[in-house]
């Protein structure tokens, strides 16, 4: 599946440019003329459909009267991000544009809050657990795709041990620990790995006990996530269902995700109780 050029960060940059133009009281034609481009070209920049070069961007923000040093740097940094490639580019044959955007968000996040209802999150999966899941995907009949997507999933976990690693808070429904993925050995090793991961100082892992009912849990799908991003990016939310990942950024959607997460967090076990429960389940496998 090929990636498109209209990435999430390109749309963010375009949205900022449009807001600056409107604040300056300029039409597309007025602004385009200032950088010697036609209105259609500027429209593509603002929609994120076409990348804008930094020299043209500088011309625009000068014309818009944006003089604040920090704001100018934020926009130029965002322009650089649009142009930069990610570590996942060698996998792009197997990625949708939406999932490539997700990987970029996950990579840049300073704090990550997760809720997983059905399966253990990809950041905590062992290679065998990940392979068993991906290999069981009916939409994949290519062994190379299964192998590369498994490698991609494990490579994502490097953010947990890098310098300035994000703080990750993970709420895992206890039911996910009983969903057999692979054989008994795969599950036992996976639970042992989950216990070991919880010793990481930047990981807070907590279980949502079986039988816990929380209003809205059914609307989560298989999971939700919240990514706190560095300036100049907004906080980004994702929910996941059978159709894939859905990105949420507007205030109303993020408020809903915040409320749902807070409700689940309030019902989750403590860290110590979580560890005792996972160890108990591991012994039963």
Automatic annotation (TrEMBL):
HTH cro/C1-type domain segment(s): 17-72
Top-level taxon in the UniProt lineage: Bacteria
PROSITE patterns: HTH_CROC1
One Pfam family from the record: DUF5753
GO MF annotations, alphabetized: DNA binding
Coiled coil: none
Protein name per the record: Helix-turn-helix domain protein
Organism classification: Bacteria, Bacillati, Actinomycetota, Actinomycetes, Glycomycetales
